[in-house]
Amino acid sequence: MSSVKSCKYFQQTYLNSGEMQTEENKVSLDVNKKRMLKTPAQIMALENFYKENRFPLDEMKAQLAVQIGLTEKQISSWFCHRRLKDKRRDESYANGRQDHSSGVIQDHGSGLRQDSCGSIKQGDYRHIDLREVESRRIYGQEPLAADLTYEHRSHQNPYDAHMEDTSSESSSSLHDQLFSESRDPYDMQVSDKLTENGALMQINPGSSKSVGYKPSGYLKVKGQIENPAITAVKKQLGRHYQEDGPVLGIEFDALPPGAFEFLRSNPVNAASIYVGDPQQPHSPDIYGVIKQPNLNIINEVHNSKMSSQDSCMEGTKFNTVHGSERQERKSHHQLKYKSSVLCSNPFPGQNSLFDSNKGSSEKTAVSDCKRSGMSSKLSVERMGSDSLSNHPGSYGGKIANEQEKSWLHDNDNHTYKAPKNENLSRTSNLIHRCSEFIGPERGPSARMAKVEKPGGEWKLKKGFPVRVKTDPTNELRVAKRVNVEFPLQDFVANASHARLPLLTNPTKGSSMDVPSSFSEDETAETSSSSG
DNA sequence: TTGTGTTTTATTGCCTCC
DNA sequence: GGAGGCAATAAAACACAA
């Protein structure tokens, strides 16, 4: 079976690379036995994607693979290992570090039982689900500067540290490469940009590693016995939370009026009224970015900000909709159905953002996840022929567009080679769209859903908050509504951040330029594909 | 520079579900 | 049997101390 699967993978690999196996490829196959590190951008994209969807659909994998220049096999493997990594860490913390699991860990239990964190059972996805719920609420969102400050504190809690590691470790290492090892002035710019955005500042080796956890202000008072809900609120407040600000009592003080709504309704202003990070009062780099005569950049930055705000503040809501792996475990068919439905109605009301981002070159890349995101099977089952007909590159087929290939590849010497910003932009959009259409995450397998979804309903076991879904369409509506209200999600923003450096590269040509010479990348992909 | 430990990637086998 | 996932394993890449 495995050999069969391997064969399948190989076939898929070659198909994805748009080539059948040739003598040359056989050579590359041998070469590819040598494992190849994924580029920082690839890792970032994967991580961001992983934050939102630990079990991506095949279509998503395919799209992501195309977009980041990997094979589906690599994508699948990466996700598999990534989940394993999470799981092992969970086990590690569950087995040896429970003594640290107090305080913030309770935050994970906002509305949940604390013992849900302490009784982590190996292999029990439900526990991981809870973490993921919190992970998405707390870490899965764009780590704003203020959030970062808080998150650094959270390191006192190994569990939170784990959570952060889970969500950003690779990114951290990625950015260590990007920043600490940067030799290119552009990389420095990258660092600046990313730092100013706050989202990645934490992973700046100089800042993150030097920041130790020192409870202060509110945390100092409340210590680790604070109401987990308060912690959750603080996190949701994100940058707006101020240590020296009004103390949030165990019983909630009223949130600043319109604290959320304003940003939601004025995403652009949200960036300009950035007040949460005293160290970066004005984030000059943001201005630097905005100065860039690329509308994409502006949108990206704003989107990032907006998404950060929204995601931070609405993380709970998101989780309610799709943050839990409970939903991931929903039946494959159901989820695919959702995917198709969501695809059919891609984020109304927020298209403008992407429309403005979309260049003429943004075509197959996005290739509209909403379309290509559907497997051919699903398409046949659920979609009209138009969806398929418009699908530029069928899933599993030849890479839709060579231009889309390998734009995230590094060159050989690991110097971060900024791809064309447009490419990144497209990827961001792609990912975003994919996430949009995904809606609730797909479960790891139908068998889990079978347990949790008896009789068309699904509920949690073991006393976790039970959410009975009686009408799948309702959830779809909710998902769509939420997606509309909070269109950008963290991984998109991160992708945007990842893009920022590229935008500063004056030598890369216009954003509309599509990499014309992917020989290097294509070679890399070809070689990796045959692995 | 080298040795060692860790992390990441790739492969393979097995399991479960459809 | 196909498909997808988890787990184990090997090996390369990386980090770091001596």
Automatic annotation (TrEMBL):
Show the CDD domains listed in the entry: homeodomain (cd00086)
Skewed-composition ranges (Polar residues) = 353-364, 504-514
Task: Mark out the compositionally biased spans (Basic and acidic residues).
Answer: 90-100
Per the database record, which ranges form the Homeobox domain? 29-89
Query: Where is the protein found, in the record's own terms?
Result: Nucleus
Q: Does the keyword DNA-binding apply?
A: yes
Q: Which Pfam families match?
A: Homeodomain
Could you list this entry's UniProt keywords, alphabetically sorted: DNA-binding, Homeobox, Nucleus
Residue ranges of region Disordered?
Answer: 90-118, 158-178, 353-392, 495-531
Note the DNA-binding span(s) on this chain: 31-90
Keyword field contains Glycoprotein: no
UniProt name for this protein: Uncharacterized protein LOC111286764 isoform X1
Q: What is the lineage of its organism?
A: Eukaryota, Viridiplantae, Streptophyta, Embryophyta, Tracheophyta
